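Handout, section 3.2

Students often ask what a structure token actually looks like in practice. Rather than define it abstractly, here is a full record for 3-methyladenine DNA glycosylase/8-oxoguanine DNA glycosylase. The first block is the sequence as you would receive it.
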Amino acid sequence: MDREWRPPFPLDLHGVLSPLRRGRGDPTWRTVSDGGVIWRVSTTPDGPATVAIRRRADGTVRATGWGPGAAWEIDRLPSLLGADDDPSAFEAHHPVVADALRRRPGLRLGSSGRVWDALLPAVLEQKVTGTEAHRSYRELAWRFGDPAPGPAGVVPDGMRVPPTPAQARAIPDWEWHRAGVDHARRSAILHAAVVAHRLEPAAELGGEAGRVLLRRVRGIGVWTAAETAQRAWGDPDAVSFGDLHVPKTVGWALRGHDLDDAGLLEVLAPYVPQRQRAVRYIEASGFRRPRFGPRFSPRDHRAI
């Protein structure tokens, strides 16, 4: 199944889609440098789907899909690439943000439309390093997700479908431990998997209402709901409060020093209701805060 779509706005294809990638080696994501093709594997209401997305020199985006959910994914291509996002009212109040806005006009907030696909890796990223979380997600997808539909799933190192709620519920306790997932994160995932069908409407609700719905699940707090909202419905105001790095990065970019969550709330106040868009511009600007002392060391929960 194929579709061509020409966005009526500047589009940074990789910038819009990159938040959906969960680290190096993500088996649900692949970038082919020759031709700049991005391959994604996802769940949909109709079943799994693989989509290959490329952008031509004239700006036209072409998507090719495989699997039972291909039609659903192809139909949502504009939304995935930010067509539902409206950055026109955004005003940059700081030079770093203004410079990023000027240099990255094609950086929009896309929406995958799938809550579970964003929620599962977000829970795995709770209170651990990215290295730990990405390893766990990679192992769970390889061992419990199905092969990707189409050609991406048949090669020796083929791509995988994210584990579905039913597959997550069927994973034995010792396999969670083997994948380096502690009891708290495992419990949150299992609680979410039980009511996953009731969480998908959060993407339609959007905004704070969608995040409130997610937070009704035990183990899903402000941070996890925000991380999910950013990807599932491109929430422009869903800031990841409680994050280890975001307050420090934003603080150094806008104030020249670390911030805590209270300081982050204050410095982003001028950007309501588009605070996450401001954070996204700062992250995409290439700004890096100074490094002091040793980095946080990953833990291996498999050894506990």
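Discussion prompt for tutorial groups: The chain is about 40% helix and 10% strand. How would you have guessed this from the sequence alone?
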